[in-house]
Amino acid sequence: MSVPVTNPANTSAADATIKAQNAKKKHAEKSTTLNYDNFLRLLLTQMKNQDPTAPMKSTEYMGQLATFSQVEQSVNANSKLDSLLKSASMTQAQGLVGHTITSADDKVSGEVTSVQVTDDGVVAHLKTGEDIPYGPGVKVS
């Protein structure tokens, strides 16, 4: 069985092709998100191209519009709740600065000099240079 020799120039060209395909995929994912303007364009196109012998009733259009509005409001409410939770985490984390905390397993302890709120939660940075994720079991004194 023979193994083909890999040419570094071909590898970089293949990498570039893969990167370009990934960029196109990300752009396609962004453009497939339905916003209010896209929904209205879709609704107008649907109205223009409907069967004249069996037109869609206006109540059906209003139902679609109402459903889309509810979904859009839910998405907006979720994003506001996320920002509220981050703000609450920051307020909670702010209270840790200057206090001594001990990890849940009692292996790491020290005075908190700063805190950082990440997607995973609050991380306390100690004077010793160590970090403790703030969560259940962490002792504050």
Mean pLDDT: 77
Strand content: 15-25%
Strands ordered across the widest β-sheet:
4-3-2-1-5
Shape, principal axes of CA atoms: rod-shaped
Low-confidence stretches: 3-11
Distance between the termini: 68 Å
Helix content: 40-55%
What would you note in describing this structure?
With 141 residues, the chain is an alpha+beta fold. It has helices at 8-31, 36-48, 58-94, and strands spanning 100-102, 109-118, 121-126, 131-134, 139-140. Strands 4-3-2-1-5 form a five-stranded antiparallel beta sheet. A hairpin with a 4-residue loop joins strand 3 and strand 4 (131-134). The chain is rod-shaped and about 75 Å long. The termini are far apart.
Topology:
Blueprint: H1 8-31, H2 36-48, H3 58-94, E1 100-102, E2 109-118, E3 121-126, E4 131-134, E5 139-140
Antiparallel strand pairs: 1-2, 1-5, 2-3, 3-4
Key phrases:
single chain; 141 residues; rod-shaped; 5-stranded antiparallel β-sheet; alpha+beta
Short recap of the structure:
The chain is of the alpha+beta class. Helix content is 52%, strand content 18%.
